[in-house]
Amino acid sequence: MWLGRRWLVVALGVVFFLCVARLGADFVTHTPGSDPWASTIRFFSGAISPSLVDQNSSLPADADPFLSRLGDDLLRTIRYALIATSLAIPGGLLLGFFASEQWWPRNGAQVLFQLIRWPVRISLSLMRSVHELIWAIFFLSAFGDAPFSACLALALPFTGTLAKVFSELMDEQNRSPRDVITAAGGSGAQGFVATIFPMALPDMVSYSLYRFECALRSSAVLGFIGVETIGLSINRSFENGFYGEVWTALYVLIATVILIEGLGHMTRQRMMAGKARTRSSGLSESELRKAAPRDLFLRVNGVTWMVVIFMAFSIGEPLVTPMVEGQRSERLSRFLTKLTPDPIAPEKSLANWDERKEAWSEGSDQFVPWLADLWEHPGQEALINTLAMSVAAIIVAACLAILLIPWGIRTLANRNPLGLAMSRSFLPGVMGSLIRGFFVLTRAVPEYLYAFLLVGLMGPSAWPLVLALALHNVGILGRLWTEVVENQRRIIPSTILEVGGGRLQSYVAALLPMSLNRFILFFFYRWESCVREATVLGMLGVSSLGYYISIQQNFREYDDILFYTLLGAGLVVAGDLLSDFLRHRLRGENS
Q1: What angle do CA 324, 326, 328 make, to 5 degrees?
Q2: 53: Cβ contacts below 8 Å, ≥ 6 apart
Q3: How far apart are CA 542 and CA 540, in angstroms?
Q4: Comparing C-alpha atoms, which of 63, 69, 64, 82 is closest to residue 315?
Q5: Three-state SS for 104?
Q6: What is the CATH number of the domain that holds 190?
Q7: pLDDT tens digits, residue range 278-316?
Q8: How far is CA 64 from CA 57, 128, 318, in A?
Q9: pTM for this structure?
Q10: Which residue in 190, 207, 455, 468 could disulfide with 450, CB within 3.0 to 4.6 Å?
Q11: Phi/psi of residue 583, each to 5°?
Q12: How many folded domains does the chain comprise?
């Protein structure tokens, strides 16, 4: 009973106020003598008059024009995102099968299969728990400054995220059609491939396109650690006070994300609607195949994506930068040495194996004190701050999204909600378009970029980071939750409208309860992302795990960076386990 929906809401409220108490009430902190209002006005004035030319008058005369450089940065950003996504989708699909409950049979061998499923899920949690920026720091240090490192840093956590979401989308499908096939003599694999996978496929394709959106944003964020993407251009322009250039780059990034969003919506609509087969009798099997309905848009769309991905791999600068023979292995060896915890790091000065073994034995005795020292100063405090920021941000985002969604759902926010004629007013449609536009705009800008700008305007405190996370995630939750509601069966909510209920009543009484389990799925998934983001946002000068990661990065202390990274990863794994447990309990409550 205490794990029911009502108590879950109460628990989230209590946790939120605990987070507020932890983070304090200093929403704006500025150094003495600074004028925050003047900086804010100058920054937002750039939104009205974005620059199309260089604002830096000291550039040489033969320098490439601003728009040309910006276009090159955008193409490089898109290229890295395409390559990373094309690598992550196959891996996520394969691992998603093994992480799904639906894939494994429900018989006496289930315990054995769970011994495979749970290690896969935990491995996926570890993959996605490390932020792309931290992966990039590791890969750039290990392999060098090459596009390959940037693409790999994006692909690895995205594979874990796609596998998790794919598996849970399959788990949420109705089991009855598969049971019918198995009862008729089909195998469990046949039932899965014929029923569960096709039912989940539209959501999986839609989420894959959304993941490409995320790859665009993450690729842009890599610019803040020196990778040549559009984020590097924004970083340089903001630090030099060229706010017109900043807004031009932001508008370009937002327009690109909106284009991908529109394409994803059209694809999802086509896949959900389908096309009816022409009814004919007496046709052979080959004639039936030829008469099968085909959607030209989906086919052209699929071929276009394959061509673009091929071009991303084959056109442009080489993914792997050439190095002098032996330089790559030497660089990797040096990185692995620095990654090894200091007390047990190999001593290169000791040539004799017995001496090395003795030194390692002595160092292992110091390993636990080394860990304890990092935990007490400052790991514990940084971990709590990271947790508080991530929880506060996702709860704020969820509250805003759940209030806005009923006015933004395409199936409700129109003159004929759920296909029923209710009014001639155009106001619901306009309101729906505005809210969906708000969701698109808020998620088009990466959290790190929001935080970078807000810290520059509000000062270094926890609340600019919380606000940055909440702004970005309200757009993402709005999109994901809206799609969940729009994909629900319409029988019950339309019945409420037919007997005189309103749009809000239909949402609260039918659509929201029907969608709650998937809401929780995406809520915890986004909380995991908030933990990852809060971990690295500390690099902007706020006391979270990222703050100490940035300090140790300056000294190339990768063993300390690994420790702080694993602390954040532990939070993500704990969230994944909690999410899985709650979904099971709530699913049982519904049955």
Answers
A1: 80
A2: 65, 66, 67
A3: 6
A4: 82
A5: coil
A6: 1.10.3720.10
A7: 555 566 667 666 666 677 777 888 888 889 889 888 887
A8: 13, 38, 22
A9: 0.80
A10: 468
A11: -65, -40
A12: 2
